[in-house]
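Appendix B.2, paired examples.
Example (i):
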Amino acid sequence: MLTLEIEYLTGVCFAAKSGQNPTEEPDWPPQPDRVFSALVAAWGTRGEQPQERAALEWLERQPPPMIEASEAEKRRIGIAYVPPGDSSALPEHRRRQPRMFPAAIPYRPVVRLNWSIQPEKETFDALQALARDTAYLGHSASVVRCRFALDAPPEAGLWRRPPSRRVYPGRLAELEHYYRQGERPLVGEPVAAPPEEPQELPQSIFSDQWIVLEDSGGQTPDLRAIAAVARRLRDALMSRYGEVGLAVPELISGHHPDGTPVNFPHMAIVPLADVGSQYSEGRLMGLAIVFPRDTDHERRKAERDWLAGLDDPSGLTEQWRTFDSLLSAVGELKLGSLGVWSISRTLTPSKWSLQPGRYARPARRWASVTPIVLDRFPKAKDLIERDAEMAAIIASSCQNIGLPAPRAVRLYKHAAIRGAPSAYPSGKAPEWTGWTLPGFLSKRMLTHAVIEFSEPVCGPVILGAGRYSGLGLCIGEQA
């Protein structure tokens, strides 16, 4: 598969919907004909190399690509009066024409176009050279970074959709003609019969947009202490609310004001560890705060609103702004005998171990990184029957987070993920080498598992009674 990845470096896409009449609606996501025109412009700037022309002619003959993009907010705009491009008149005598500059602010500033083809190396290299020199897409204010890739894995937070316009054989020659004539080209052809949209994959209740806190010094705790570390982070955040005289939201604490547990999804804290590669050692590299998917959509919208200075009649924006401020104030976790660990929020994780996308990509098979705490104790005495009951409990845990029942659950003492510690100490190892569990989990059973679904499901997959405290975190097997 050939993929063109486009990143909007300013986080904003300036583009009007194509047509005869001006419109306030931005053209989001960018259509293949707009992208192709940008590549052609780069080809012209680079000197119209023959091998690059051949690559563009090859690309225009291919079927329309599928588009992967997030949803976007429409920026509020007004009408601007600007002079036309004709410079024959003096500035004071130039007439002014009304223009609108529609803009979209995507939730994720990345768009991917996917063709189900594999080009020859010479063609791919020529397309890559054009992509590297493509600095903007459509409007010159839409500054972008582009690159082609082969067999790129799915990216969390982007949704597939068919295009509404396409390029066609002869499009390059058509663009050349209009350029020589000094005229604006027509838009690409509409896709008369768009391919059927694939069914939306099942997804868990947890958001794939994580708040990442990375190790910034001090005594890094062992991964097996994650439940205690997660509780300490939650306590530290809750104490910040008390310091400013605010009640702790139930979404953060997981409890009602009277101390009883809530019966709805709330904030989870998960470990980000060095696991899953040939040389992984299982070191804890950071933490991530994970909110329920619907709540996190609200949080990210509130963040965009306060950054844009928009009004907040509902009060939600200020609530989330308060959370963001109080979280930033949590710089150290005092872990008692485990020492003091410094953590800091990062918006662009650079280390592979800190990438949330590893835990959110679609997959059929999932394996536990931290052991799953069973939601209840199995009643069966026979070992075979007990394993079957434990597998059924884990299958029920999958359904509890919005996923379908898996077709197979296999239980293990040891993790299937390299670098992840076993569920229980081996042999005569001292008890303290096991997982540290808070009181409400201390009598529960732990197990590692490999879980297989009948179809790919979207993570995060966080299972069991310890799912809000860093246990039961799974990672999908990359297809």
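Example (ii):
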Amino acid sequence: MHAILRALAFGAIALAGTASAATPAFLKAQALRAEAEAAMERGDYGAAETALTAALELRPGHPGITLALAAAEAENGESDAALTHLEQFAGMGLAAVLDTGGTFAALLGEPRFIGVQTTMARNLAPVGSPQIAYQLGNGRALFEGLAIDAASGRVFAGSVTERRIVVVNQGTVSDFVPPSAGLWSVFGLAIDAPRGLLWAASAAVPQTGGVKPDEIGAAGLFAFDLATGELKRKAVLPAAAKAALGDLAIAADGTVYVSDSAGAVIYRLPPGADTLETFSNEERFVSPQGLTLVANDTILVVADYAMGLYTIDVATKKMTALAPLSGTTLLGIDELTGGEGNLLLATQNGVNPQRVLRIAVGEDWSRIRQVAVLAANAPFHREITLGQIVGGDFYYIANSQWDRFGEDGATPDDAPFEETVVAKVPFK
């Protein structure tokens, strides 16, 4: 799930209903960030620096904290320290608008600061060769989830605002599951080819068209016949659950795993069941998003928007953090899917620039070996969301236009929306 309840990896974190699930260290870091923000507003840069230094010790390599600490240090006249943290931030491949007329004015002309500006400008240059593969229709539908049936070539996409699933068949877009089918907003989609099913993760959120206030928080998994669109199975959580089911993964035996970014839970739906069971509500979760099964379905890899990547042993439920490599960040990942061997493909929309990543993991799935940017800064990128591997290409929704929608679901103006497109980029 993209912008509804996501933890902003780049800036301040705004979560509803997830803080209670976070670790004491995470909560302490958040409190320190709030303390630092208040200190900056009253001009007490020393107190802000102290708080942010402590927060960074709790969240090493966090890009938002690193950038904020650089600002506090610059205001304190600590140029070398500020430049070091700016270099670390830019070295992660990120960019930000720096206040050269105020906070960082004293650094203008410094060779190291010029180097930071040069690196950030380079980070905003196009990377990779993504190409437009499909068109989905008017972006007002707010397409989020994507599933491609490799056998038939049909492409399915879920609408957040219009409560429907469309299908692209030989270039023609039509409703596959109409709004009358009883879905809420449609997020993650996945195909269970052996059983001929299209699974959808759906949730009632403020952006859901026609949603009633007392519906918000309801969510569920829905399975449709892949040929006809007929509803075959469903498992629903009531509004009292305050859930936001966002992405899903399907095991070879038909078991479905789904992430709840609002409740900080991973649910599991066994074959034939109609009730979601809690698979993992580990306290380290803050906002679990994309997830994928690897190693013959023995390991579930989960992207937590605020915390990074975790592996979960399916048999024991033991969870292990996959630490990022130095000079990289794995925060703000939305989509996560497994490729051949020990590869992961990810969309990272919680940082600037938004990117498609290729992540190589060690043979035992205990460490990350390499992180590469496959695509960034394409002219048609505007809030990238979910995707899928087909052959040697990764397909993803390239311009969902989530930024046009407020937290209440309203759009700020009547300006026309762009046509939403699916892009593809080779990853082999």
